[in-house]
Write a structure and sequence with these properties.
Helices cover 39% and strands 17% of the residues. It has a ten-stranded mixed beta sheet with strand order 1-2-4-3-5-6-9-12-11-10, sandwiched between helices. It is of the alpha/beta class. The longest helix is centred in the N-terminal third of the chain and has 27 residues. It is built from 14 helices and twelve strands.
């Protein structure tokens, strides 16, 4: 009796879990719920902080200048401009006299003057992943990693997409791309930073935004090409990612349906915002005259498997050829450097001005890896090597 009772409890527990799983999947076929789950823009672990006081995150007074920009479709995007620490030290007296908080007119601030008036200034435009705000999780450590040290030239610009943090609107694929393009247009046309002094940096969802933005500018007339593109923890496209993705690295989404490919396909076909980075990256590489692309991924990334980086490396390398190459042919031609405990580097030099670098590191997980020196070095190589 005891064995039978235990068996029934286990059976009904699994049955209930399975039922809840299919109910959840059914709900996720709703576009509205999909987008809430994908963008997670209402999940904010820093809700008790005032983002207009960046000193709470360990920055010097007025090292970060918050301000707003407006998109062509009328959304207001909350934005941070982060000064390099070395430059801040040189102008500390003037900077601390500035009013603190959200700037009514960013062009009248000391930080903007230091960015716009220096013909040698460099700008990293950083696109963060899903959930939270510009200050969530490891993001502030990312800005610190990029802006600290002796550098006086590398400024950082980052934004909360529509519907995130203090920004208005509702996130969609088209909307986030508009936000990214708006931010870059501000850098080009308001701060007047030439594109050859700008690096686009993305992490997780931000890699899809950064790639879409790079493709947008290289396919419009006149064509605009940036100094480089750095993608950290990127994915090939959303439907492919969902087949292996686990929320928080723990809860699988569609992988339990692997024995039922038709059912899995049914759900995949209902994903509205597909974020096809593979296609956009190939088009970006193909249309560009100059490519400095770096892919960085951690082997212990349990959210987005590092094999997605392999896919993107192959797609980008293949796009540099006239007739196309198989993945095996690309692997035979690429150069690999073993870095020991630091991981390894694959390099594809297509000749001319198209260089693709893939760096796989052993540590850093999904979020912390963007704070690692490999990312700062990737930016420095593009700007100064």
């Amino acid at each position: 009796m005891a064995v039978g009772s235990t068996f029934k409890k286990v059976y009904w527990t699994f049955a209930a879990a399975g039922g809840l799983y299919f109910i959840a999947l059914g709900l996720l076929s709703s576009v509205w719920l999909q987008r809430h789950a994908l963008y997670a823009n209402k999940i904010n672990t820093a809700w008790f902080y005032d983002l207009n006081k960046p000193e709470q995150f360990g920055f010097s007074k007025n090292q970060i200048q918050p301000f707003n920009i407006t998109t062509p479709d009328g959304e207001i995007l909350y934005t941070w401009h982060i000064l390099p620490l070395g430059l801040y030290a040189q102008h500390e007296t003037a900077l601390i006299k500035q009013p603190r908080g959200l700037a009514e007119d960013i062009t009248k601030t000391e930080g903007f003057r230091l960015l716009a008036n220096d013909p040698e200034s460099r700008l990293v435009i950083s696109f963060h992943g899903n959930a939270g705000t510009v200050a969530q999780g490891w993001r502030t450590d990312t800005y610190r990693s990029l802006s600290s040290g002796s550098t006086t030239k590398i400024h950082i610009l980052t934004v909360d997409y529509r519907g995130f943090g203090y920004s208005t609107g509702i996130p969609t694929e088209e909307g986030l791309i508009t936000d990214g393009v708006t931010l870059v247009d501000w850098a080009l046309n308001v701060a007047n930073i030439p594109p050859e002094r700008i690096v686009l940096l993305g992490q997780s969802l931000g890699t899809a935004v950064a790639t879409a933005v790079a493709e947008h500018f290289v396919t419009r007339s006149p064509q605009i090409e940036f100094a480089g593109l750095v993608l950290v923890a990127a994915f090939s496209d959303m439907p492919t990612l969902m087949l292996t993705y686990s929320a928080g690295g723990i809860v699988p989404i569609l992988s339990p349906l692997r024995p039922y490919p038709r059912l899995q396909k049914w759900f995949v076909e209902r994903i509205r915002d597909t974020w096809n980075t593979s296609m956009r990256l190939a088009n970006f590489v193909r249309r560009s005259q100059n490519v400095r692309l770096t892919l960085i991924h951690s082997r212990n990334d349990f959210n987005i498997p590092w094999k997605h980086s392999d896919t993107l490396f192959y797609v980008a390398a293949n796009a540099t050829t006239e007739v196309g190459m198989t993945e095996k042919e690309v692997n035979n031609v690429k150069t690999t450097l073993d870095l020991g405990e630091a991981g390894w580097v694959n390099t594809w030099n297509a000749g001319g001005n198209k260089k693709i670098r893939q760096e796989i590191v052993f540590h850093g997980g999904h979020n912390r890896v963007i704070t690692y020196s490999s990312v700062s070095l990737a930016v420095s190589r593009i700007f100064f090597a």
